[in-house]
Amino acid sequence: MPSASQQPAARPPQAPVRGLLVRALAPVALSLVLGACAPDAWKPDDPYQAFLTQVRQKCWDTQFGRKAMPQLMPDPYTVDDYFMDVTGRFYRGQISEQSYRSALEGMYGAKSDSTGIRCLLEQMPKSLSAPPGNN
After folding, report:
1. CA–CA distance, 90 with 101 (Å, rounded to integer)
2. Domain span at 79
3. At residue 90, does pLDDT exceed 50?
């Protein structure tokens, strides 16, 4: 039997407090992480998803400057983040067509009349209204 001097030291009393603190802060950390996402990034948008599927199918063999559609949207779960961001903002009317073309031109070197941009614009629903002003 080990003597009193050989017994393992007792845990510090802070250990249970640390566990409580972690459990209490976990929801706060999660909300901060989720809050950092775009406000509409987690909401399903069936018309927009249908638009993206149509773009992926009809514009598959087109170029956006240095990038081809298979590099920008190879499948619904693997996408180019910048392309999806500006395309989503354009689709929702948050930026103008000119701003959209300029964004693709700047990022990918796509000419504003490239086959990829023309094809994508042809897939835009006609019912969407243009954004106010020239964002």
Report:
1. 10
2. 57-123
3. yes
